Structures
1.
Amino acid sequence: MSGPGAEWDAALAEGRFLLQRPVGGGSTVFPPRAFAPGTGAPLEWFEASGHGTVYSATWIQRKPPEPRYNVVLIDLAEGARMMGRVEGVTPETLHIGMAVKARIIAGEAPIIVFDPVEQAHG
Amino acid sequence: MGDTFPRGRVSVAGAATFGVGEMPGHSTIEMAGKAVQLALANAAIGLSEVDGLFIALPDDLFAGLSLAQYLGLHPRFTDNNRAGGASFMSHLVTACMMLDAGYLDCAVIAYGANQRSSGGKLSTPARPDRWDAPYNPMYPLSFYALAAARHMHQYGTTREELASVAVAARLWANTNPEAFAKGPLTIEDVIASRLISSPIRARDCCLVTDGAAALVLTRTDRAKDGPQPLVPVLGAAAATWYNSVTQAEDITVTAAAESGPRAMAMAGLAPGQIDTVQLYDAFTINTILFLEDLGFCAKGEGGAFVASGAISPGGSLPVNTNGGGLSCCHPGMYGMFAMVEAVRQMRGTAANQIAGAKTALAHGNGGTLSAQATVIFGNAETV
């Protein structure tokens, strides 16, 4: 039997982004645990909606000619926070509070990235 | 119960630095060993009297064992607690409790590193965890950048206010013979320096230097008979909230908001009664975060506070009077150097001595704003 980290990896490899919550309700847990941090309560898996907002963001500029890239913290709609990357943005368009949605890039080492969510124009 | 501390019953008997700046040709244990020798001479205590060793080295997972071997001692206890730059304040907590309990009679806390001579880059075995690593954050720099970006967003902290921290540190360093980085530095210079991980630029970052430091601790009744002015430990508290600051509830609030009030409660002091603050300024945002969390200004007002000149020479709260990690020295885990400067201020022997200072706070930070530890030193009048 695998630990929760390996279970999460296996789900991601199948294209599913999992989170945990205490059985019977409570704060969403990420990264995965064997029990709820702080209380020890048992946890169950559920599939994340993928919706989130940018909590903070930094652009990393390594020595040229390496291109700049961003690293962000995402507040997931379900309540947990994770590190990530927003694709298709520039320092001018990426901003704290921006709505994003998760996308899984499949491969040998699958990774969750985030895309900006088009805001309805009113 | 909890947080029972032997206020004033343990004191710093000896303190020393070695090789601050550049000291080529030395290994980390040789650096640390030399600092121990100098600190014991400073205390007029013989090597054979040391029975507790507290140390963290950047490149040695078994540093406590290595130091016992290097010094040729059979200590009653070794402690290699690794809480990053807060390790040494954590060591001091343990050492004070063990000395007061009579388990130990003479404890040494030591650090040494050759970061500059061994390549000029920060050398650390620490890495982002497996959840953060896939996104290639610079470790530890980008984690501090994320805190700085959020602080600017949440409170309107400005680029200029961040830069003013580096300028204040340089002003102190310019009159400290031991400081490594000297010369003029303006807010414009900081803002024009190379962007590394926004909003952090090159001059927002601490130095990479060599350096070693050591403290010798004994019970106060013995330290009173020593050759140095008495520097009692009035309070000391460590707080750990996580490893990756990614997991912070609010990334603009650090565990210093816990360690500071706990240490001050032990000392029986309020922030307004602290005469000088020595804190771990790995990046300019650190100084702002810690001054807020330790209670020297309100949350969100740190930017305006540092830009007002309050922390600079002649200001109302002298901060990092040696020049700090930004301009004095930063051989990796800086915590020891904040404590040694606080001790020098209490002895009246600092290069930038604050006249009449009776209390000094030294604050260490470890990991990515993860572990925080606060120590409050006094002078003979405070016990």
2.
Amino acid sequence: MAGDTTFRLRYVGARFNGARLPVDVLADLPAFRDLLVAFAKDEWRDLNAGRKRVPKGFDKSISFDLVGINDGSAVPLLNWSRNAAQENLPGFEDELQEIVGGSYLDVVNLIDGAGHDQFPKSLSSEHIRALNRLGSGLRENEKIEFLGSSGQDGKVVYLDSYRRKALITRVRETYQARFESVGILRGSFADEVMGRVIVATSEHGEITIPLESDRVKEEFDGNIDSEVQFDLQIEMDNADRLRGVVGVFDVGLIDVESGADLLRCRNRIAELSALSDGWHDGAGRRIADDAVELANRFLSKRPTLSKQYHIYPTEEGGILVEFEANLWDISVEFLPEGGVELYGVQIDGAEELQPVHFSDIDGDFMTAFDRRVKGG
Amino acid sequence: MGDKLTDQAEILYRQIHPTFIENGEPSSQPFKPTEKDKNLLSVDRSSLVSAERSHVAYTAAGMSSSAVYGLTVGEFGTEKIVCNSDPIEDGALKNAAHSVADYSVHSASQQKNVAKRLKRKALERGCLHPPASPSSLSNTQTGG
């Protein structure tokens, strides 16, 4: 429609390829809208000096519709409708259009500033609530680009987990992040209303995960010291200390057999990490600490696959995990200088995946790994 | 380097270091040359030595091997790898059966998947020495 304004947010990262927008990032869209509205209220007050409140219908007049998702990773198109504004705040369409445009610039400038160590002295609780939700599902090496914007460096402005953390912890003390790993069950408690399990993790010590009472009683009671796999949304302070669990995507005991396989794999890595220089008939470097650390983190990501893993040292001082899945013979190689390679061959076919390098066991790697293991 | 090996059915033996076997399964790594090998993978010709004698001679020279696997000249050929005789005339490693499989047509990166395919063929043939599967072996059969 004439006069409509469309904002394009480009999600960058392997799991967004082919215009895929995972549902766990959809919460970004209302968060983006809420942040823009918070700035729009500021703009309104600036334009209408003396007025403390925005007019009735102001909030509803800034509603967005998701009108499409373009390719190039995934680019959701958010449309502000001038007609909707006209219905909710008749006579103010032109002013609102100007305000929406100005507010978008405010959002972009706020995020661009965070990338250059420039922060507002304070923000309202409305801004902070929206900001804490925007991008909370982003994984490492993923970002949201605000297409059409230009930052201080002349490049398109983007929000990533680093900028989120910097921004949120400057305007408040904590930020939220995703935490996916395994740990050991140390305790389980349940009453009539609510339950919780306590899990010891190598990353954040003992964490308390809230759960329904019935689940605690049926699944966790009596399983102290068992392995637990979890995927959580956590709140961290600005020194990266865990404040608490704010959301539970997945938590469950790893079955006894998988636990034994996981232990075998961990023991094998420990065995390899003890190799000395020259272990391969005079050649063969000692296994690098970076490779050991990455390999152990990898095991924690998909512990139920441990049964299939065969683990070897590489002569260069890395660790190679080989296994079969989804009719492929797959290798994950942890390099001595850090980083990881994924490659493999089809078992009964001619297809192959040439080595692809990743800098870390991050979202991009896990997406590529899961795609190869599960197919699709 | 000596003559090109032309008998496509001739099996070439490859020694597997104990560290490259876990839970009875060899890694793909012994099926590609390391950096120091300069693209040439050492193997022994079955027309000149048995798998057992190859293993005995190898470990007697001070090297470690838990198992001997084999690939034919033809199987190397399907990966565009040419094999040549390369007898070692002198020293502790003296070995008339020694040959090399030349991987230089493939980059180091490409060799990783080539090794995976060749390993699968070698595993289909099975462990050629010792007769028991490597999973039943101790992990340190070191000669010398």
3.
Amino acid sequence: MYFLFLILPSLLAALIAGLIRPYRAFVGFIGAFLSLISLGASLVIAAQVVSGQIPTWGFHMEWLNLEDFLRADGLSAILVVCVTVVASLALFLSPGLGRQVQNPHWGELAYKPNQLQRFHVFTNLFITSMLLAVTANNVGVMWIAIEATTIFSAIIIPLKLNKASIEASWKYILICSVGISLAFVGTVLGYFDFVSVAGRVESALNWTTLLKAAPNLHPEVMRLAFVFLLVGFGTKAGIAPLHTWKPDAYGESPAPLTALMSSALFAVAMYALLRWKAVTDVTLGLGFSNKLLIVLGLLSLFIAAFSIVLARDYKRMFAYSSIEHTGLMCLGFALGPLGTFAALLHLINHTVGKSLMFFLVDNIEHKYRSPLITNTRGLLKTMPWTGGFFAAGLMFLIGLPPGGFFISEFALFRAGFALNHPWLMGAALVLLAVVFVSFIYQINTMLYGDPDPENINTERPVEQFSWRLALLLVNIVVLVTLGLSLPAPLVALINQGVAILAR
Amino acid sequence: MNNQLFFQLSTLGASVILLFGITLLWRKSMRSYAETFKWQSVALSLMFIVIGYLGKDPELYAVAAALFILKAIIIPNYLRRMEKRFGDDRELKPYVNVATSLVLAGLFVLLAYSVTRPLVMVSDLPTRAGMPLAMGLIFVGLFLIITRKKAMAQIISFLVMENGIALLAALGTYGTPLIVELGVFLDALMGFLVMQVFVYHIHDTFETIDVDQMNELKH
């Protein structure tokens, strides 16, 4: 029942935004407030899961059996809350909610009404499909929803048509569509395996049914299927070497969309991979998927670390940081129950932390004209609040206490050493140190120094505290809370997720 | 007897559909790309009907009809309109030349046979012998996407690869469950519509649909 309150509000918001033209600010506010209903529903679902239930929703028609169509266990509940929180923040901070309307002199950042309308329609559809992806029980429907996220997000990347944004969106839609269709090959192979064991059943692609049948599936077939699924959903999650679209797409899309893509969408893609990993591990034993994840995770860390050293554009720098955290999570999910716990906690931290950074990037983009790090000097002088938040977020992101990242990375490395992987963990630590040093260097350039008057929007006075900044306190408070303590309901949720993934 | 016929028809059909994909390796004009895709889709729809009839699964008739309407009528219509705008842009110099591509295509089919060996051994459907050919088409489609330089040729290569996946599902399992099948068609249509809009954008801003010319984004 609560599933309807979870998924329908964003669909309704997309409908409203599509019907009312030209775009008006109240449309954006309606969407933002509707997203609070989703957020509430997601918290109710999470509470139900914590108390030991597994809520489901579905119906049965004469020719269509959709019983248990939507289902939320521990893993889904974590993802649902992550997605709805970031979605609400992104909708409240999205373009067209006041800021652009008040100041017409924004030059490059002012969007036209039709662009704003497009943004609100497709962002809401994007959110709807992410929520469907993490609650669908049928892995085929999950695939369909994830492919839909590619399409909806690709439409809004070139909100401003220029060479760079078109190139980025073309790369994004082509690479991700191809990748995701390989994941469909994997899904078909999984279904094929099920059919050749148990015959054609309408509910065969339900994850619960697959998991029950998993011990009897053919290892050779599932091995092939998992490779396709890893390549496919790995492309979408941006695991190296399939990450190439990420810096381009993150660099060119409107910042609130990037916040959604880097945190929520990434988590959704990872979630899809994990669902299949759970099935594959039952069929094949633990070794196979874990080895692949360790290799790709380490490669992601390696590529990301050295790309951050060379980064000159701060949005692209955060894209590489995403790849770094992707690598860490891949390692975690391959390191048994302890590592899985750490990786799930890290996933939550990353969702909160990375969305914070991109919302702040949105503020910076309103002040500075250039995306280059060397042209973005003196943040603390021109935007004391954003600059301060930015510094704090970045310190959390590279793993300094009291941020949640510190705890999850610590737990992750402990899990690795406990499983006797000293060389692997040592290499990962060295790469993290590289990231650490280069981030400190880059942020020094951005925070201090004198801003070049050519590059900043001088029409705006020095920044005052506003409700936009107050909203971001949510992220900071969550990060600090996760760094200082682990709330019991959260531990219960993560433990349920671990029970699903690592047995 | 019936099974024997089914076996031969499905293998023959899969070979024809794969061959349509391989011919793209040496075609140059966008019109021939679009035509090849259209006829491949027609063959694929027929394949679904044959499997539906001989495999006694009437659901596949509906899928075949949807596939025909989408991939043999709607999408080719859009492709024709694109071809009128960008028809002068030909796929003259792909990243890999024709002779090498053909050798590679042969290797892809061999690879597909070795990869799908466990599938063929596990299955007891009369259509199983076609699965390596479907996998071969997926590999050839991937290769086409990577080596083509024109955005429109890349889209068509992607559609050809999608046909390969549909063929694999049809041969291996007589198609996926109906709700998944319908969702996949919806995604395919939306994805295609967005991609074709992007091609117009690419043409308007870069004055060519050659993706080789897109090199704005570095570090």
4.
Amino acid sequence: MEKVLAIALTTYRESIRGKALYSILLFALLMLIIALFFGSITIGDQVIVIKDFGLFATSLFSVAFAVISGTALLSKELARKTIYNILSKPVSRSAFLWGKFLGLFATTTVMIVLMALGLTIFLSIYQGAVDTSLFAAYPYQILELAIVCATAIFFSSILVTPSLSGMLTFAIFLAGRSVDYILILLAKLELPDPVEYLLRGVYWILPHLTRLTVSDRVVFGEAIPSSHLLWSSAYVAGYCVALLIISSYFFQKREFN
Amino acid sequence: MTPATSLAITNTLLPALELENISYAYRTDWLRKRVLALKDISLSVMPGEAFGFLGHNGAGKTTAIKCILGLTKLSAGAIRIFGKDAIDIESRKLIGYLPEQPYFYDYLTVREIMHLYATLRGVPAAQRNSEIDSTLKRVAILDRAETRMRALSKGLMQRVAMAQAILGSPKVLILDEPFSGLDPVGRKEFRDLLLELKNAGTTLFMSSHILGDVEFLCDRASIMVKGELRGVFNLRDLSRGDGAGFELALQSCAATQAPLDAELRESASETSDNGHILRLKFTTRYHAEAALRRAMGAGLAVESFEPLHQNLEDIFMSLLGKK
């Protein structure tokens, strides 16, 4: 476990010192410009629009970072051969993957925390009072990121091309956000049995990110029961563990030519 | 590793590193035929021995090293480190590895990098800081411990690479071009350090293009050509000067001694004459001494008579067909 944490800490330090801070600065700048823009043209409740946009931007930035950084993580290690130094030590390949996942997840979590702080400060200044109403949405965004990070690690462990891994990770993210449409489709259409079984299989394999999408409810002040967070956490933990076990299996077979 | 375990390992008759009929083939893609990068290689390196692993670029040295480290899987054969299968993670506790063209994480400091490797190597937490400091001091980079890797020159990076390789006192050091990127002072320091480690009982397995350093440090060396092992040479035999022939240097013959001159030249395997000195090379002591007696009997002035020392470069070039 100590070895996994050492790899995770290295991944976190390398990521946070490298690119993440620039993304956060870009986010803060973008937020300010867009808020000022909306403030001038919105009719109705400007605060709700800013909150909704703020959560959307937080999610977008962190997911984009996780996809780009996560899929480049292993290819960069291979291209620069830093992985040789790690795996020539008494470290298993699965420990390496777990360390990479935890480091990436820690980086994206810190990003969300910093962006959440920025958004809270901005909203508080805008409204003239401290506003913590969006805090309920952030744990779900962090859970969603865990799945995106694990998916990025999964594709990186089986594919050589980072751009392809990135596209597939983002495709899984989009499919996970739309997974309920499969059930709607099955309810509306009369499909042959094999096709229905296939679609039901895809439904269960895809991550159920719709379960983690609570932004609208939070923005409009709807309370979310704590049991929902608990069950969602258990689901995400199980999904990530399964994905990383499969990734480790493939990574174990990989040749470093 | 405890001192008792370490002693048990070095006392054993098991080779420190053993490659048994290893082959490695790969495909560049599914449609292309298999490329055989390593062909049935066998060699043993004994504990405390320094072994040079030579060959031109693309000969398969780095591929073989990757196989030893478990980074690529063998198509056939087996690799053992002190009797343990190299695929077994436990075997890697005995190895320190210095990669060719080492790269590290840009934004980490030297100390952070060393902490990572110390943890991975299993250096106990309580000893980590002192072990890191003493290792960095050993490669003369302790004063740069807080510098980020991206700010280091190639030579300093090579020192960090050596530091992480020797961290935790591994029993076998696998060194892939250890002198790359070093200035003459750095090279001398690395040579001295490796000699010190060798004298302390560490087994060295070293690939290098700098034949002089291999000759200086290693007891034996092998030469790889196109994935095949072309021979294993005892470098101590080379330094004794056996097998390379003899050279007789005489004052060039006067015009009146043309028949003698022709006779001497004919008996030699190789000749050169700068107008003042005639140099004759002989493959056997018998022929060399016969020519020496003939020349002295005819009253010719002998400048020198000496055995020729074959060096590693001669062997290397002849095996590559360049000489």
